[in-house]
Amino acid sequence: MAINFSGEFATPRTPEEVFEFLSDPNKFAPLLPDFQSMTMHDETHFTVKVKVGVGNIKGSAEIKMELAETVKPHRAHYKGQGTAVGSQVTVSAGFDLEPNGDSTRVLWQGETSVFGKLASMAGGMLEPLGRKNIQKLIDGLQKALSEPLPPAAQAQSPEPPTMSESSQAGLGQAEVPGATLQNDRSNKEVSAQETNGDRNP
Hints:
- This protein is of the alpha+beta class.
- The protein is built from five helices and seven strands; from the N terminus they run E-H-H-E-E-E-E-E-E-H-H-H.
- Strands 1-7-6-5-4-3-2 form a seven-stranded antiparallel β-sheet.
- It starts with a strand and ends with a helix.
């Protein structure tokens, strides 16, 4: 059973910024509905684990995903396959980006195919559930891309050093040798006077 989806939305971000987000599995994968975890294998291959629930059928799916195509900053396309509740699942999701004045137009399309026990047991519930989950994904993408990126923080020049307590303590310690020297001179003068006193009857 195959289910196809398509649609579009706009974002205030530039095509380059949108492409950077969509082509990063670490940013894209957690937006998948009922996301549980992901494991990166390399820059373009990863495995996601999501919860599956159709009526009384509940379980999890592990899908091996690939960032199959990237055309910067115009297109990003994912595809994957895996198993869910004893059934085979294949998915694909593509995003085409078009500049639109001060915003970017995102045209998306996807397909999900389910074969095996899940398809036979869930029957007609699969398509409305699939559309609901796709809408969750698109809503998550729109929310993540709804605000323009903040301007890059300017490097702040280091502030001049202030007279901290530690530096003040250090200055206090620097005065100690002088005080010791004065004490040594005083001791020497006292010793000299005592010596002269011993010599005089």
